[in-house]
Amino acid sequence: MARTRAKPATARAPAPPYVPLRGHPLNEEEFRGQVGSTTWVPRLEYAWDAGVAISRFLDGLREGKIYGVRCRRCGRTVTPPRAFCELDFKPMDEWIELRDTGTINTFSICYVTWDMKPLRVPQIPAVIEIDGTSPRVGFLHLVGGVRGRTVTEIRRQVRVGLPVRAVWKPPAKREGAITDILHFEPVRKRANR
Amino acid sequence: MSLIKRKPQRRVAVIGAGLSLFMRRALDTGKELAYYAASQALQTAGIRLKDIQAVVMATAPDAFDGVHMKGEWLLDGAGGVGKPYLRAYVGGGSGVFSIISGWMMVASGLFDLVLVVAEEKMSSCQPHPQGAFLTIFDHTIERPLGPNLLWIFSLEQQRYMAAYGIRNEDIALVSVKNKHNALAHPAAQVAAHLTVKDILDSDVVAWPVHRLMVSPISDGAAAVVLASEQVARRLSDRPIWIQGVGWCLDTSYWGNRDLAYPRYVEKAAWMAYEMAGVTEPRKQIHVAEPYDPFAYKELHHLEGLQLADRGQAPEDLARGRFDRTGELPSCPSGGLMGVGNPIAAAGLMKICELFWQLRREAGARQVPGNPERGVAQAWGDLMQIGTVAVLGVR
């Protein structure tokens, strides 16, 4: 059991709950050295099946194609593909080859890793609405082909509503994965949607 | 279209509330934190654990603690030994979902006295509890892109800003307001006097999100005691009634959703309002505790709760409408941005705040006037759930 070095905090304020609140806050030093703690690094391995619909989507990516699926009852064309329409609760009716172009629905410029370490070159995640789908339908990917690292430099080149195109890995290097698309890059001119 | 079949017949009241301190890192275990809050709630309700017939425990991902079946592990701290016990878990929405679950137990007629406890200890997860969130992304089509939790919020905030032409200065004001409100909260972890400039001068973690627009990592617990009408009237001279509850989830294909407006929160809100007989929320709701894990979220949720027009919440905030002394005080507690964000406990802390505000015993935090009805809301899962509770003095 931990040695109770930390003083119990007894906060009182002219506001509820009006009674001393319990809890023993630790500072970083206390946590790292003075109180007992036990550590464990889990090792778990999983092998995930892609499923019926996503398997076909991944096969398409290997061929440089983005697939969507269509439900005739609600009339939606959506991607990523799914085996059944989650609204009408029936099988999807057809597979549709979409274009590899789209529009930036939203984006971010991320300067930290998940454990809050700084990133020198920021990541630019985005939701890309893929051309040929129903309005506002897309998926998460990255924006690339952008110069500069600062918010100002990047925002000069990337904005919501910007047309983008998939930049593919060379065919020989594709493996049937979402990363077969390296990123989406801004396009200056684009054929009619 | 009606969202509920019929108004439940048995009324349910909150008759006691308790909290632990909210801390960046507590020596105390999750069980100990839960015990502090639960025992305080029982004490203020004037009852003992043996009077409690069933227990609801809300706590978010097992991965925070590295303890599988964490709900069962926390049982002893929640006072659930030898009783019907339920873990209520919908991610960040769990805190408000816990009182919804407890309400169902009492409204159904099964029990007269139910203890609802919410606990979170995020600090155990190393090197950063964000690691626990990496597995919320789709394993095949999202995780290979290297996502982290901040992406979700920064993408949603940017869509919200782009859709309505909102500036980051307007959003930073939420951090200023809530951290200031929290100065009067004895449990507060990150209360401060700051300016919009301070917020925007803090590091950009994932533009448009700055470090001071993000709620902290917290350890803490909250609890309330729920009672049926007859028992509540016997035990309490000022029971606070749960007038309505609502919850709703949107699709897990989050890239197919309107990120500028939380429709699922709107649906959850109308379910709760319908049950509460609220037809004009802006007139009939006097105090609000919307979920604010990130600064923009409070504004997003005020719109979903029908308490501001779409895209207008930032303007309302700037003119003081949501201040503690404003027309519709929002997060008078200080919210997650000021008091702290031990996930499930933060949601139930908001219920505790309504309990004190509506009993007019909130002291330094008391909103002016005679608030008769308030709404609390939480949000979570894969950015897809809204959980709403309407509480009132009648």
From TrEMBL, chain A:
PANTHER family: BLR3430 PROTEIN (PTHR34075), DUF35 DOMAIN-CONTAINING PROTEIN (PTHR34075:SF4). It comes from Candidatus Segetimicrobium genomatis. Pfam families: OB_ChsH2_C, zf-ChsH2. This is Zn-ribbon domain-containing OB-fold protein. Residues 95-169 form the ChsH2 C-terminal OB-fold domain. Gene3D superfamilies: 6.10.30.10. InterPro entries: ChsH2_C, ChsH2_Znr, NA-bd_OB-fold, Thioester_dehydratase-like. It comes from the Bacteria. Residues 59-86 form the ChsH2 rubredoxin-like zinc ribbon domain.
Automatic annotation (TrEMBL), chain B:
Transmembrane segments: none annotated. Residues 257-392 form the Thiolase C-terminal domain. InterPro entries: Thiolase (IPR002155), Thiolase-like (IPR016039), Thiolase_C_2 (IPR055140), Thiolase_N (IPR020616). Residues 30-189 form the Thiolase N-terminal domain. GO terms for molecular function: acyltransferase activity, transferring groups other than amino-acyl groups. CDD domains: SCP-x_thiolase. NCBIfam families: PRK06065.1. This is Thiolase domain-containing protein. It comes from Candidatus Segetimicrobium genomatis.
